[in-house]
Write a structure and sequence with these properties.
By secondary structure, this protein is mainly beta. It has one domain. The protein has one helix and five strands, in the order E-E-E-E-H-E. The protein is globular and about 25 Å long.
């Protein structure tokens, strides 16, 4: 399974209470900071719990190294 990184959009197993299930990763370390794409709420999740509850990575931000 490829490692997730900042900027990726993911779907988690359980939806947010607002009804949204798409999240954007805004920090990835020992904890993962996620932003709900529907309501904008930001939550912190332990990386182990994040990996357990991750359903799918739907969009990956590409980084261009061209100047």
């Amino acid at each position: 399974m490829p490692e997730n990184k900042v900027g990726d959009t993911v779907i988690m197993r359980k939806p947010h209470p607002c009804g949204g299930n798409r999240w954007k990763i805004i920090r990835y370390g020992a904890d993962v900071k996620l932003k709900c794409m529907q309501c904008g709420r930001i939550v912190m999740v332990e990386r182990i719990k994040f990996k357990k509850n991750l359903k799918q990575t739907i969009e990956t931000e590409s980084v261009d190294d061209h100047d």
